[in-house]
Every structure is written in structure tokens, then in C-alpha cells.
């Protein structure tokens, strides 16, 4: 019997708003310093939406670029999965609005909310859909406008986040060799302490305090959980697929804090030269961090055909996961 085909990364695309806020710009808003932000997080600037950009426009632009890169027409897409915790409107799903904007009239479209793990969660779903034969061309997008939900008076959180979107067109096989495609995915969640990283507003529960309108985070607790969970997930997916850190060409981790990225790389013996870091330019763009980094790596020649790429993420929920793919 023919082995079911894996999801293969056929095309990638990314988009970010033109407007940039440097650490020095943020010094004018809250009691912080460029020095503190750079040394504690690795962030130097972030892109933030202006009046013309939002989760829908960014997702559409990234999706269009991924289709072009893949050489796939919008009509050929049969599933759009959009990971976001900052949808354009309450409902319908932003994925449906992206479908319309792209002219992907033969697709089903759905949003998923796995916070910063949205892209890895989406990859797990896309792999299942493609392997089962249910879908052929899956457009997976991570898109966020975090600047609209952070409290610009809270130095503990506003310095950390940014806006962007990244997209991947996933399709069966590579047409190149059997070993290419997504080799494994692993996802987990733990809903015991949702308040560790949350935003109460935006749902149907009444908002009781001013703070509940914004993203709230116990930074130290999230930091500790992220270091453990991302290290565990990276180790586990390598073990499951029979590879080791030495085999990995590129580690593309979620970009929340440089110190978390370094700890994750150390856990699986991957030197920092093999780790993709763009946190200095974008900050934490939640579900968009991994696909934006992938799209940039492909465009610059840093990620090439045949490379073994390890992705690992952690976010609100808590949610976390990892994926290993041969490009
Ligand atoms: O994507 C989802 C996952 N999110 C994350 O992974 C984020 C995880 N957390 C973190 O990255 C870090 O915990 C932070 C960057 C949020 C904070 O770094 P930290 O080293 O854990 O700092 P802290 O919260 O322990 O704060 C240390 C000090 C405090 O002052 P005191 O109490 O020691 O006087 C803070 O008030 O730094 C202060 N501080 C700041 N100072 C200047 C906190 N934020 C700032 C700031 N500028 N922006």
C-alpha cells in the first residue's frame, strides 16, 4: 500500500505593518529603557498596525504571498486555517474574510485560537487533513494585531508584543523525494491556570475591571513554564522521529524572549548559529512568529530545500508543541 503523503511546505509568505515602534519610542510612553528591554528580552523594535492594517489585511497579504511562492491558485485551496487570538471581528471567523479577500472560493475556512502555539497547532491539523486525504492544499496562517489588546500604560507587557502575519501553503508530498514534508508534530495544553496569560474582554463574560480589557500576564510564571515546556516538546519530537539536535539544520522557535530561545536550544544541543532569531525586529507576534521567521529564512536563502527544521512554541492556555519538517 502507498504510504499516505505528508504535508509539505510548498510556499511561504509574511507581512508586517510599515509602522515601527523602537524601544526608544516606548521610553516616551512608559517608565522603561532600551537597555532593560534589550537585555531582558532581546527586542529592539516591533511593527504595529496603523489605520490601514489589521489582522485581516496582514493575514491576506501573507496568504497571497504564500500562494504565489507555491505557484498555487486561490481556487485550488481547499482549506484555510487561521491561528489568531486577535481576530479582525468577533465573528464570523477572520479565515472566512481572508478566503473572500483571496478569492479562494473552493475552500473551507476556520479560525483556531491556540495563542502563541497557533501555527504549530495548525500544522498538526493540516498534517492530519492532508495525510487522511481530506484536503490537498491547506493554507495555514498565523496573524495577530497584538498592539490592539496590550495596555500601553503597562510596562510589564506593552514592550513585548508586535503585529505581523505569516502563512504556509501545505500540500501532499514534494514531488522531489519521499523523505520531505512534516515528519512529526506534538501538541499539548494545560488549562489549570488560564489567568497566567489571558485577556478577559473579547468574549461574552462581563468585564469587571479596566485591566480585564487588556492582555494580562504573570511574566515570571509564564517564563518558567515556557522554558520547561518548549525544551520538553523539542526533545520529545526529536525522540519520536528518531533524530537528534545535531541533525537539525535550523531551529525556529516561538519568539517571546531571547533567554527562552537560548534555553530551548541548549536543551536539545543546537548551537545558536542554527537558531533563527528575529525577535529584535518584531517582538512577540504570537501565532505569527514561526511562519514569519520561516518565510524570511526561505527568502534570504537561510532555509533551503532538504533542510531539517525544528519548530517549537508555547503560549496562553497554556498551550505548547513542536514540529519537525524536511523542507
Ligand atoms: O508568548 C507567550 C509566552 N510569553 C512569554 O514567554 C513571556 C515570558 N516572560 C518573560 O519573557 C519575562 O518574564 C519578562 C520579559 C516579561 C519579564 O522579565 P523578568 O526578568 O522575568 O522580569 P520581572 O518580571 O521579574 O521584573 C524584574 C524587574 C521588576 O522590578 P522590581 O520589582 O525588581 O523592582 C519589574 O518591575 O523589572 C521591572 N520591569 C521593567 N523595568 C523596565 C518589568 N518590565 C519592565 C520594563 N522596563 N518594561
Question: Can you walk through the features of this model?
Answer:
The chain is α/β, with parallel strands linked by helices. The protein has helices spanning 23-27, 34-41, 55-70, 94-102, 118-132, 155-158, 219-241, 258-267, 279-282, 289-300; strands at residues 7-15, 20-22, 45-47, 79-83, 108-112, 138-145, 163-172, 181-189, 197-198, 216-217, 250-253, 308-315, 319-326. The strands form four sheets. The chain has a five-stranded mixed beta sheet. The protein has a four-stranded mixed beta sheet with strand order 8-13-12-11, sandwiched between helices. Strands 2-3 form a two-stranded antiparallel sheet. Helix 3 (55-70) packs across helix 4 (94-102) and helix 7 (219-241) runs parallel beside helix 8 (258-267). The longest helix is centred in the C-terminal third of the chain and has 23 residues, at 219-241. The two termini are 25 Å apart. The mean pLDDT is 96.
Treating each run of at least 4 consecutive H or I residues as one helix, how many helices?
10
- Placed side by side, the strands forming the largest sheet appear as 1-7-6-4-5
- Number of distinct beta strands: 13
Structural class by helix and strand composition:
alpha/beta
Order of H and E elements: EEHHEHEHEHEHEEEEHEHHHEE
Estimate the mean pLDDT confidence: 96
Oligomer: single chain
Biggest sheet record:
5 strands, mixed
Spans of at least 5 consecutive residues with low confidence: none
Distinct small-molecule ligands in the complex = oxa(dethia)-CoA
Q: End-to-end distance, in Å?
A: 25 Å
Q: If you compute it from the alpha carbons, what radius of gyration comes out, rounded to the nearest whole angstrom?
A: 18 Å
Helix content: 25-40%
Portion of residues in beta strands equals 15-25%
Shape: globular
Amino acid at each position: 500500500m502507498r504510504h499516505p503523503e505528508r504535508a509539505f511546505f510548498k510556499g511561504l509568505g509574511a507581512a508586517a505593518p510599515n509602522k515601527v515602534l523602537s524601544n526608544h519610542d516606548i521610553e516616551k510612553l512608559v517608565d522603561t529603557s532600551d537597555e532593560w528591554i534589550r537585555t531582558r528580552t532581546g527586542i529592539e523594535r516591533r511593527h504595529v498596525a496603523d489605520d490601514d492594517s489589521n489582522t485581516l489585511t496582514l493575514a491576506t497579504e501573507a496568504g497571497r504571498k504564500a500562494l504565489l511562492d507555491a505557484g498555487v491558485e486561490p481556487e485550488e485551496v481547499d482549506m484555510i486555517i487561521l491561528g489568531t487570538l486577535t481576530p479582525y471581528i468577533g465573528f464570523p471567523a477572520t479565515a472566512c474574510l481572508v478566503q473572500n479577500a483571496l478569492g479562494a472560493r473552493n475552500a473551507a475556512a476556520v479560525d483556531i485560537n491556540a495563542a502563541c502555539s497557533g501555527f504549530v497547532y495548525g500544522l498538526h491539523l493540516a498534517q492530519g487533513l492532508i495525510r487522511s486525504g481530506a484536503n490537498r492544499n491547506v493554507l495555514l496562517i498565523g496573524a495577530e494585531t497584538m498592539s490592539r489588546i496590550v495596555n500601553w500604560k503597562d510596562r510589564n507587557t506593552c514592550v513585548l508584543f508586535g503585529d505581523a502575519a505569516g502563512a504556509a501553503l501545505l500540500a501532499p508530498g514534494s514531488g522531489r523525494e519521499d523523505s520531505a514534508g512534516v515528519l512529526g508534530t506534538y501538541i499539548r495544553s494545560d488549562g489549570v491556570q488560564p489567568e497566567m496569560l489571558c485577556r478577559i474582554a473579547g468574549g461574552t463574560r462581563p468585564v469587571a475591571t479596566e485591566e480585564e480589557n487588556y492582555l494580562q500576564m504573570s511574566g515570571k510564571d509564564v517564563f518558567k513554564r515556557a522554558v520547561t515546556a518548549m525544551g520538553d516538546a523539542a526533545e520529545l519530537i526529536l525522540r519520536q522521529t528518531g533524530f537528534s539536535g545535531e541533525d537539525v539544520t535550523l531551529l525556529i522557535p516561538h519568539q517571546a524572549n531571547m533567554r527562552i530561545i537560548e534555553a530551548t536550544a541548549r536543551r536539545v544541543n543546537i548551537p545558536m548559529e542554527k537558531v533563527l532569531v528575529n525577535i529584535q525586529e518584531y517582538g512577540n507576534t504570537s501565532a505569527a512568529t514561526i511562519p514569519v521567521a520561516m518565510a524570511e529564512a526561505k527568502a534570504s536563502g537561510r532555509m533551503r530545500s532538504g533542510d531539517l527544521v525544528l519548530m517549537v512554541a508555547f503560549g496562553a492556555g497554556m498551550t505548547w508543541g513542536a514540529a519537525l519538517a524536511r523542507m
